[in-house]
């Protein structure tokens, strides 16, 4: 909020109706998207870009009726700041002995050569970039309450562990 020079306001606890404009608009948009998907006959898209274009066309249609009101407010809007707001959240973390990093209830594996090192995780909407020594060393899909462990990251440490790949004999 400070980046845009705006002071935030909070609603009172357990008073959801105080945020009605934003919540109502969001609910109506979700309903419109659901209806458009039903009319389309499928919720499957060939690519993420195709889905993004579909949503953008929905936003364009919904905003078409608001152009007059937007034109009224446009003269009183301030200019945006010169610098752009970062599109990722930077989280410093240390790689544990299992070659894992823990970020916001998610666990990701990184290469075992980074065990004990401090890395910077950059969280984007769809991916996590792991940076070490000012270099991106890995890009992982972002999860929600899940573990993302790649065997290639931990195989080096498992090879050095005696008996890690021993197959028990059948009796």
Mean pLDDT: 86
Terminal-residue CA separation: 66 Å
Low-confidence stretches: none
Q: What Rg is obtained from the alpha carbons, in whole angstroms? A: 24 Å
Protein traits:
171 residues, alpha+beta, 2 domains, 4-stranded antiparallel sheet, 3-stranded mixed sheet, 7 strands
Explain this structure to me?
By secondary structure, the chain is an alpha+beta fold. The protein folds into two domains: 56 residues, no CATH class; 72 residues, no CATH class. The protein is built from four helices and seven strands; from the N terminus they run αααβββββββα. The strands form two sheets. It has a four-stranded antiparallel sheet with strand order 1-4-5-6, with no helix packed on it. 6% of the residues are buried. The model has no long low-confidence stretch (mean pLDDT 86).
Topology of this protein?
Layout: H1 20-40, H2 48-64, H3 67-73, E1 89-94, E2 100-103, E3 106-109, E4 118-123, E5 127-132, E6 135-141, E7 147-148, H4 151-160
Parallel strand pairs: 3-7
Antiparallel strand pairs: 1-4, 2-3, 4-5, 5-6
Helix pairs in contact: 1-2
Write a short abstract of this structure.
The protein has helices at residues 20-40, 48-64, 67-73, 151-160; strands at 89-94, 100-103, 106-109, 118-123, 127-132, 135-141, 147-148. The protein is α+β, with helices and mostly antiparallel strands and 171 residues long. The model has no long low-confidence stretch (mean pLDDT 86).
